[in-house]
Amino acid sequence: MVHDHKIFPSFEGIARGTNPMSVLIGKEIEKALKSRLIEVEPLDRSQIGPGSIDLTLGNDFRIFKKQSKIYHIKHDSHFHDITEAVHVKDGAFIVIKPGEMILGITKEKITLADTISGRLEGRSRFARFGLAVHVTAGFMQPGISNHQALEIVNLGHGPLALYPGTRICQFIFEKCDGHARYQGRFSRQVKP
């Protein structure tokens, strides 16, 4: 198959924001890291895959309080009211029961240029256990500079032990057509 370079533009156009959205793969991820259009800290080169970067599970979690109260989901709702913070030491684990949801966070901080956005996805090796690592809100805005919150759900039939430091999800990078910078509520997030 022959690709028309007008349809599939080169990496150099990213800084100008003139390319249609497309997924960065392999060498393009490396180029974006080198030019600091993408920053991942900390990053071990072995985390870079053919179309994404694996991210590891951090040590901080929020678990939901067991209550029968009805929580009203409105624009000004705060999840801190219904959760409590838990820190898990390296080498230890947190158990998530079937049907349970917890909030986690990545060890890595992701910083994107205003011409790069992305998606956070689980990894198939853990999905086979029934582990959904990011149940919603998988789109990551251009210009973010934060740790990624993980909405983790056990859809399986037995309890699962989660260990900080596990490569639990992957970040897929996309070139944007234009420039934008996310400045919302979670723009500087470091804890779930």
Task: Describe the protein's architecture and organization.
The protein is 7% helix and 35% strand. The protein starts with 21 loop residues before the first strand and ends in a 17-residue tail after the last strand. With 192 residues, the chain is mainly beta. The strands form 3 sheets. Strands 2, 4, 5, 7, 9 and 11 form a 6-stranded antiparallel beta sheet that branches. Strands 1, 3, 8, 10 and 13 form a 5-stranded antiparallel beta sheet that branches. A two-stranded antiparallel ribbon has the order 6-12. The protein contains 2 helices and 13 strands.
In short:
The protein is mainly beta. It has helices at 26-34, 124-127, and strands spanning 22-23, 38-41, 53-56, 60-64, 83-87, 94-96, 101-112, 116-122, 131-132, 139-140, 145-154, 160-162, 167-175.
Radius of gyration from the alpha-carbon trace, in angstroms: 18 Å
- Sequence stretches where pLDDT stays below 50 over 5 or more residues: 1-9
Q: How many domains make up the 3D coordinates?
A: 1
CATH homologous superfamily heading: Deoxyuridine triphosphatase (dUTPase)
CA(first)-CA(last) distance: 45 Å
- The CATH class name reads Mainly Beta
What is the average of the pLDDT values?
Answer: 86
Could you give the count of β-strands?
Answer: 13
Fraction of residues in H or I helices: under 10%
What name does CATH use for the topology?
Deoxyuridine 5'-Triphosphate Nucleotidohydrolase, Chain A
Overall CATH architecture:
Distorted Sandwich
- What's the shape? globular
Helix count equals 2
SSE series: EHEEEEEEEHEEEEE
Task: Work out the strand percent.
Answer: 35-45%
Main β-sheet description: 6 strands, antiparallel
Class based on secondary structure composition and strand pairing: mainly beta
